[in-house]
Amino acid sequence: MKKKLIYFLCIGNSCRSQMADGFLKSIGGDQYEVQSAGLEAHGLNPRAVKVMQEAGIDISNHTSNVIDPDLLNRADYVVTLCGHADEHCPVINNSDVVKWHWGFDDPAKAAGTEDEIMRQFRNVRDAIKSRMEKFVKEGQ
Question: In terms of Cα–Cα distance, which of 79, 75, 97 is closest to 23?
Fold first, then answer.
């Protein structure tokens, strides 16, 4: 049976889409093909890597990628994780692709002390983990 392709999109493919990618690969096992990308490639955020390591998931080898039109139109699900990506997602030419928007705050925009910034990263990480668990359990 063909695995369903889930394509996570955000602005820079540095934090939220990387976390979603890591969690779905971990929680969903090998039942999904998981890819992530951004409208731009901002590079992998080191704080995202750190908070995912705290959760037992290594995303340090992930790369920051720009949206691939072929993947976009081959996906079963395209999931935008920020309003900007939702509004500016390239046109999907395949009517079979299901597009969802699951918005999360951008932890890279957090301000304050390092502890306060890391708390924001952990809050977003935990919210994304919860959403991935719901998706695997309910399929939506």
Answer: 79
Q: How confident is the model over 124-140, as pLDDT tens digits?
A: 999 999 999 999 998 76
The 3 state secondary structure assigned to 25-62 is HHHCCCCEEEEEEECCCCCCCHHHHHHHHHCCCCCCCC
Q: Which residues pair with 78 in a beta bridge?
A: 7, 99
For residue 53, the Cα-to-chain-centroid distance in whole angstroms is 16
Distance from C-alpha of 37 to C-alpha of 58, rounded to nearest angstrom: 18
User: Is the distance from CB of 11 to CB of 120 less than 8 angstroms?
Assistant: no
Residue-wise pLDDT for 58-103, tens only, equals 999 999 999 999 999 999 999 999 888 878 777 788 889 999 999 9
Catalytic residues: 10, 82, 89
DSSP state of 90: P
Quickly tell me which residue has 């890591």 as its tokens: 22
What are 49's two structure tokens? Answer: 């890597």
DSSP state of 29: T
All domains in the chain, ordered by first residue: 4-138 (3.40.50.2300)
> What's the pLDDT tens digit per position in 100-126?
999 999 999 999 999 999 999 999 999
